[in-house]
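Follow-up to my post from last week.
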Amino acid sequence: MLNRLKNISLLDIILWFIRTSIIVIVVWGTISTLRDNPYTTRNWIDFFVLGLAQGSMYALIAIGYTLVYGVLFMINFAHGEFFMSGIMTATVFIAGPLDASGYLDKNPILSLLLILVVAMLTSVGVALLTERIAYRPLRKAPRLVPLITAIGASFFLQHTFRGLYGSEVKPFPEIDILSGKIPFLGTEILRSQMVVIIATIIMLIGLYLFIMHSKTGKAIRAVAEDKDVAALMGIDVDRTIAITFALGASMAGAAGVLYALVFRQVHFFMGFLPGLKAFTAAVLGGIGSIPGAALGGLFIGIFESVGPPLFLDGLNVPAYHQLKDVITFTLLVLVLIFRPQGILGERLGEKKA
Amino acid sequence: MFKRLNLVLALLVISSLVLAACGASGPAECTDELGCVEYGPDDPIRLASALVISGPNTQLGLDSQYGVEIAMDMRGDVAGHSVELQAEDDGCNAEGGQAAGQKIVSDPSIVAVIGTSCSGAGVPMSNVISEAGYVMVSPSNTAPSLTDPNQAWNPGYLRTAHNDKVQGAAMAEFAYSELGLTTAAAIHDGDPYTEGLANAFREAYEGMGGTVVAFTAVSVGDTDMRPVLTSVAASEGGAPEFLFFPVFTAECALLAKQSDEVEGLENTVVAAADGCFSTAAAEAIGDAGEGMYFSGPDLGFAGDTYVTFKERYNSLYGSDPLSAFHAHAFDATNLIFGCIEQVGVSSDDGSLSIGRQALRDCLYATSGYQGITGSLTCDQYGDCADPKIAVNELQGGEYVPIWP
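User reply:
Got it. Predicted complex:
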């Protein structure tokens, strides 16, 4: 007993102190908020639903991080830019002109489909080019090299699109059939946010079935398991990796359209923060796991929205909504302390970690 | 062989340095305590600008830069020298202001700076510029802290833009007296400009007898404003009748669009300020901004100069003014030119020497200068503006002045 006590270092004590104090603050904040509850139940449901819609977008983007990490063990920091490139292009070339000509209001479903297709194709195109030019030549390099390249690619893409479309905030037209609210979970939700939630669920299920039951999906899983053995089994590894990138980017492209429907403005820098959040979501859920990325995205979206009023209002923190990122990243730290592999992550062996 | 070559090169470098040093000590001895800027007979006077010329707030900075360029164009030569502008970007944030400031003070041939656009960039830049003995005149920094000696004021800083104490009070008066609304909320983003203006509004509004039910903040880069707005709508004093968010373009457009969509805020009157006052901002807000109010400098300037100015603007850049601070930039540039002519010492050979402290003193001593924006008189902390605030309403994508 005494021996075990001796082995506890100062660092351990400090770490435990930090962990307990975070938990104490969270619990104390929650209790004091709920004691003089300034919000109605309706407000709480609002916060939850808003977070759900935001989290769905994070989930779709997070899929791209997790897929690529699964096959290449690299964090593709340019993924947020795939998200941006698609919707920027679709806004400038499709949504803007369609709105100006009045076609968007006359034929909204067809226009939306067109916007979606263009956004997804652009995202996929940019992703494939980035993979071919920036990542494939570095496949055999040490792991830090593609990571730095990815950060470089991210800046390069941001500023390329800034050069192409300008640096101002571009409005995305409001679509009449998607404006207004509908009842949901005892509150009212914007139609566009409802679309986001439903579309996300459909796409996530589709993707999961594709990965689990199609031949290409099987190839992706085989490459993720072991590239060399997969190649011996007759799988074209380069092609499979390219498909993985395309798959992730098409999800990001669709997420871009959903983002534009809800926020109705796009900008060349819009991919950075959602990209970062989605990366956090992928890590939180357990990087490499598709259901994990989806769950992580939803978690982060909901905590961002519910967290500040729940934890901080009772502590009399001024302007607490500004601190939502602090809450997100504290959540990440907490989860990683108690479950380093993430919520649904498997413990990785030496080779993958 | 190589050693000898190196020796020759080293000798060349040393001799050129010595020669350059000899050349610099011109005929007029500089006695200024901060040193002098020396221009040879054919050198242009070098002016720098540090305005936001990238990102979503580009039009704010570009508009001011056009004002500077038109001032240069209309003035022609200053003290017998042509004028050259080095345009830097303040990035509309503290890092950008710091970087632009460092770059400018590393160039001894720059005499003065027009900038910054954003108060957030102005805080570090004012420090860098002042410590290096330079002087800056901002056309659009409005945060009260910049000319408050207990906060961010530095001796090399002046501005021709209004202090937001004036703008905040004007907005409060508009909401309370003109619209007759007695509860209000304000949202800022933590930037010195937005926080300063939101605070000024709150103080003035409460002073008049109004109640501020919520005073909160978002962060720059946020996109989902609905949680904040839901909190504002659920605040203790009830949903506010008036919502003021003096933030920059991107967040302003999102707040404007989403405030209509939040339960409880449907009937709230929304307003923003001059950080969201540009054609790009109006476009980004779109239909959601119809009937929304914006405070900003009163652009109904009297006098013929503004008519000429606008014609020049239109012919050079092919549009009406993009934002609100072009005239302030024009006046700031002319103040500097006037002082260069006043304190610059010309030698017989045509070279010009400008004392940096003398230039500062001259600018600070400005009194009753007749510019486009009115009669400018600088106080001891560099507030030079003749502040006139107007409230505009967004009607069909155009800012229409409606008050006073």
